[in-house]
Amino acid sequence: MSKDKMEIGKISKPRFEFRSFGQCFCEAHKRMARLSMPVPEKVWERSSDEIYIISRTNDINNTKIRNGKMDIKTYVQTVDGLEQWNPLMKGEFPISAEVLKNEVFPAFMVKMPELTKEVYTYDEFMEMVKNNPDLAAVRVHKQRFGYMVNDTICEYGNVLINGAKVVTINSESTEIENIKKTIQDIGLEGVENINYLQAIKRVIGMSTKSLANE
Which pTM value belongs to this model? Predict the structure, then answer.
């Protein structure tokens, strides 16, 4: 069976991912940049502002909102320390009560709010989040730099989580062995794999764990 050719920005079968967060991955970033093959100019540097909805009771569904659209991914499995996530739901505001009832709030794993309307705006949804003590809406700004090493999609990013600056580095692919080789080549062996949900919880104090190199 032939391997999938990884292309930045293209949809592939579900990927495995290594990602970590900390205060400095300077040497790993330097090696990643030097080992990278040329990548499209559109991914040299990208910035975005997103809202992550974090739940105390959920670590398997990753919900974020960007440009008025909601995206939920769900955890599938971990193989050799690498996580695999699949799309669970994509929606946009205004959003129907049916979607909130059957897809969104079940993904948060919290008590369902009383839904008295058929459709809810972004502001109305955020008010429901604010009123739930187990949920937090977290502002995340990302400045990402894209690379391609060992046929894995890589990035280094400066991330602001409610204004707190951390950095992230990652490698993802459908091929586990390619990611493992990239981790070795850029010097990240033994570094904890931390996804966005875990990192945000640690930064905002919902988890007592520290980041990778704090």
Answer: 0.92
- The mean pLDDT values, 10 residues at a time, for the chain of 214 residues are 54 85 97 98 97 97 96 96 95 96 96 95 97 98 98 98 98 97 98 97 96 86
Pair 193, 83: CB distance under 8 Å: yes
Q: Where are the domains of the chain?
A: 16-204
Q: Domain 16-204 sits in which CATH superfamily?
A: Hypothetical Protein Pfu-838710-001 (2.40.320.10)
Q: What residues contact 127, with CB distance under 8 A and at least 6 apart?
A: none
Integer angstrom CA distances of residue 164 from 107, 116, 161, 197: 26, 37, 5, 15
- φ/ψ of 46, rounded to 5, equals -135, 145
